[in-house]
Design a protein that fits this description.
elongated, Dihydrodipicolinate Reductase, domain 2, 34% helix, Alpha-Beta Plaits, ten-stranded mixed beta sheet, alpha/beta, 13 helices, homodimer, six-stranded parallel beta sheet, Rossmann fold, 18 strands, 3 domains
């Protein structure tokens, strides 16, 4: 006979993921672990929210937090405030936290984890990064040995848009992503790379036990990418992905930017709204974890796994925070391969002028494509490994040439 | 200040993985978890084994098991006996177990887990399936919701051989795998699919809490596959992989066999000695986990993650064993698409005869390739979904046709 452990939980915020949690709980899925999860109270700011039968709706979040019978608070409202206040107050009242909130964690992790430790409470945040992929659990429990790098496709909206841009323009691809629910009405947070940046900050934190503000991460969005770049990339044997990269060299590189990924690399096969995290460990070698990065049920699955693990007595032991600021590599010190696209007058000597400037800055060319016809034609170049500071200087000079029109497009190449 | 928990462990069997464990422990990797792992004693049957300084070598396994200061026994000898005896005796003496032994687990899981429960001890066996991929932890902790299917490339040797067979014959591919250490001198256990079968039994056990003997799993090895099949598969848009498949329909399908995998499927990109597990969950949707499936350090990483998790108080709570035998689908009841290759006389009417027989058994043809020249030529056919019992009957009849030489080659197509 299984003896069920009973646990009362309270839910703050019942949007898409919250509804998913309610639906999954109703299937009694935790029974096989010998756990009875009782969703005792829900608080949602929208009083017109769809009500589930048999669940008590609280007047406000405070009522859920103050309920002495509730042991775990599931915070699904997102954003900085009032989420931070609710989380801290819940911990103060000795309640465990399960959250899907990447924003509040990436910004206030030191405060939240300090409070949790002080009160001896657990924080489950599997749902905050990459929805259904248990990347938090994997990093905290399954790779105790040294990690050399983490590369993630951690934003489904932009991956969907970039996948679709092989057939259509950015604007149409974005519209389709919005129509299908893979991009927000205001997509700026995703397409500017900031969503990826917050997730990278969390991955870095749990891998290295060092907190960095997401504003310290070098970030570029996907708006510079055109359908034409995707076509040239294809021709050169690459696809373009928005990657979140943590490279744990002596001075860590932390960067989010569109990246040329060789088609032979596993990350190149991650399409549409899927997410993936590619980890290279000293002992493990390369590994990749992929799945749905968002959505009602995939994210709710992560929330419920956190609840069950907390009830089973597992706490997420974050490696001790090092209370120091660390030096992060300036992007001008990156040494990578680069893709340039210039728009140049179609006349003799142009290539020579460009090559001369590149030579001055010690940038050597790996391949060139120039094939279209017209007054101005695109010239696409791939370089060997070069210092990014030099690349910026060279590009600036090249853009000033009379034969060059407008700005150059610069995309980094994946080096792992 | 971190206060270290100290734990004494004993190692039984110090072959490749054991040496990896010693090497990783010497790097002090568990320190960030606040844990000091002290490898107190090693027992190895080979008295000439390379000795590490500062570690005590026991006369035999019993001496390690009987040491009252040792809290965790790491069993790395493999095979059924004496591994089973050592594991049970260790549990009896209230020592936790960490093992990489898929054979003993797939055969004696009910006995081992019952004893562990009785003695309130933990068993870590992350290293027993897919080396560095934390598939045990993921299945036990991260997907509490319903799993619909698990498809794995869980044997590195055969995956290496099949990858190489695109360029060379089976014999040469096997030799290369052996030379590189990816296949055993006697490769029969791998190439006959039995290694995959044992791993599938473990994955099924922890997913569904039901024990099945590995002999209940329908198993075919890779020896029927030829370079020619790989070439035809390529032309048809597929690659061939040895897959371990658990399909959790009402009557579960459990099968290991070479499979045509569409090139659009993520599993098709898993090459050489890599492993991968593709899981489709009701809530999660499809997910894939990939990495090194074997090797000194990747497997040692898994062993050490188990040790750390046990010290941190996490026990692998296997879902309650259901003490019942379950019905598994007979392979003649599979309904799949199939690839056939016949060697047929190159004369008019042959295709009609084959098609007639297929028609009688309700097998409809999706595509045909016949293009080589000679007295006997290969005919390759792909079918729509058909009942395997019928397919077997039809093939038997076709093989008896005067115009057909030898046996037909039959390969199943991935249906998930």
């Amino acid at each position: 006979m299984i003896k069920y452990k009973n646990v009362n939980i309270g839910l703050i915020g019942c949007g898409t993921v919250g509804v998913g949690v309610v639906k999954l709980l109703r299937k009694g899925i935790s029974k096989k672990y010998g756990i009875n999860i009782n969703l005792k109270k829900i608080a949602d700011i929208n009083k017109k929210v769809e009500k589930f039968k048999g669940i008590e709706y609280a007047r406000n979040a405070e009522e859920v937090i103050n309920d002495p019978e509730i042991e775990i608070i599931v915070e699904l409202i997102g954003g900085y405030e009032p989420a931070l206040t609710y989380i801290l107050r819940s911990l103060e009242k000795k309640k465990h936290i399960v959250t899907a909130n990447k924003a509040v964690l990436s910004e206030f992790a030191p405060i939240i984890f300090k409070k949790a430790k002080q009160k001896n409470m657990s924080i489950g945040f599997e749902a905050s990064v990459c929805g259904s992929i248990p990347i938090i659990n994997i990093l905290l429990e399954s790779i105790p040995t040294n990690i050399k790098s983490i590369i993630g496709i951690v934003n489904g909206s932009t991956n969907y848009i970039l996948t679709k841009m092989r057939e259509k323009d950015y604007k149409d691809a974005l519209k389709e992503a919005q129509d299908k629910g893979f991009a927000e009405r205001d997509p700026s947070f995703d397409i500017n790379g900031l969503d990826s940046t917050q997730k990278l900050a969390i991955l870095f934190l749990i891998s290295k036990g060092v907190y960095i503000k997401s504003t310290q991460i070098y970030t570029e969005g996907i708006t510079i990418i055109t359908k034409r770049d995707l076509e040239y990339a294809e021709e050169l044997g690459y696809t373009i992905k928005l990657l979140a990269i943590a490279n744990f060299s002596r001075i860590p590189e932390l960067r989010v930017h569109p990246t040329l990924v060789p088609k032979t690399h596993l990350l190149s096969s991650i399409e549409y709204e899927d997410n993936a995290v590619y980890i290279t460990g000293e002992a493990t070698g390369p590994q990749m974890y992929t799945g749905k990065g968002a959505g009602m049920l995939p994210t709710a699955n992560a929330v419920i796994s956190d609840i069950i693990n907390i009830v089973r007595g597992k706490s997420y032991d974050i490696p001790e925070f090092k209370n120091k600021t660390i030096k992060i590599k300036n992007h001008r010190d990156y040494k990578l391969e680069y893709y340039f696209r210039f728009l140049a007058l179609d006349k003799p000597g142009v290539l020579a002028k460009i090559s001369n400037i590149l030579g001055i800055y010690n940038i050597s060319i790996a391949s060139v494509i120039q094939k279209e016809k017209g007054r101005y034609v695109p010239i696409v170049m791939m370089t060997h490994k070069s210092l990014e500071g030099n690349v910026y200087k060279a590009i600036k000079k090249i853009e000033k040439l009379d034969c060059i029109k407008g700005r150059a497009n610069l995309i980094r190449v994946l080096d792992i």
